[in-house]
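Subject: Interface between my chains keeps coming out wrong

I've been trying for a while to get a sensible model of this assembly. When I model each chain on its own everything looks fine, but I need the whole thing in one frame so I can look at the contacts. Pasting all components below, labels as-is. Any help appreciated, I'm running out of ideas.
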Amino acid sequence: MCGRRATLYLPYLDRYVCDRCLLRMNFRRFRKYMREHKAKRYTLVKSRSSSYYLMRYFFSKGGLEFKEGSKGNVVSTTQDELAEMVLASVLGNKKFKLGKKIMPMSVIPEREVYRLCSHLKLPLVKRKLSDISKFLDSVEKRRPGVKFSLRKLAYSLKEL
Ligand SMILES: [Zn+2]
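Reply #2:
Try treating it as a single job with all components included. I did that and got this:
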């Protein structure tokens, strides 16, 4: 679209994007989320995951002040992880509660997180997939947007 070489296909938009457009698009998603979830201070809950490194990059890029710690109000849960939490609670009896945590990465699909980490030379630490993640991946392939819908459901229900 922009003339640069496309690196990723986005099934839910039926569009190919290049790394720079993907970055701009996701940074915009991040900022929109942060505008809607303002807090006095941000402490990012440290984790060894790509979504954490990308989230920290977005905080710096957005000029947001933050601390890092083992406890805090901002977690790096991705859209995929949130969708899995919702489905797991529907399938089993693990109760789902959205809680008060700020989850800016929940607006970003995991595969886009990985793509951006390799573009930005951030550590690529892939998450181990559970049965539910594999199941959701196969559904997502046939019905792009399912994870997005589950994430939306999480926000509308807050508790399940
Ligand atoms: Zn582009």
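Reply #3:
Confirming on my end. The chain has one domain: 8-132.
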